[in-house]
Protein: Methyltransferase FkbM family
Amino acid sequence: MKNHLLAEVLIKLKLLKFLNLVFSFKINGKRFKFPIINLIGFQNLRELKKGRETHLDKIIAEIFLKKTGAFIDVGVNIGQTLFKVKSIDLSRDYFGFDPSPSCCFYVKKIIKINSFENSHIIPVGLYNSLAILKLFTKYGDDDPHASVIDGYREKSFYNAEQYTLLCEGDFLLKELKINSISIIKIDVEGAELEVIEGLKNSIVQYKPFIICEILAIKDKDEMAHHKKNRVNRLEKILKNENYLIGRIYKNNKIVILDEIDLYSKPVESTFDYLFVPQAMNKFFELFL
Structure:
């Protein structure tokens, strides 16, 4: 709380953007550090004030007990998931991908000041092919709402854009010589389908658990039909590979679904879904 108040005062005085500061905090009993560099990373401090999201912590911990292999973080942003992973298993191989150069620069600083081993940031977005697309942003260089999908939100929502490089996930994982995967986490603001398509061979080969954020479709969304079709295609790919669907709740609960729910948000539910290989279907029993 004191750290947050200090940063708020510095912002009001218009000084924080001129300073590079380092703050410390605890996750799951382990102490880590994070910097604020030209305002990038300030959201980490805000999350500490309002209460860090913890609904993925137990899920990740239980998966790590049952499955070896690297953690693939698609959509690193400012390192929120990196801290979760390292608080649970400090030695776990971590590979993070993000199309934002600023986010990649920032998270590399996190890795350095915490002396994280087996942690790698690749400054490229994952996609189903090699492509150069516009990255749309609204809230600065570390915007968690940044998207490469034109039309995912109304054009008026964004106020900046930059070109960014995207690559097929299967190609990159092969080049990185990753030969075992425990979890793939996907948070890419509308590009979930392309990410899954680009990782299909790796999914077939390694059968990882998949954590994926899929936002609900809002009322009067002109792109609703198009968005629904895209989610249906994603769902079909994973069902064809014998994956089961669960919706993650904030109270350490997972509700098994027949299909992804795009139109409702039950109490305590999140927009995070867990896709579990059929062979590991008893995993859900830990969170019923």
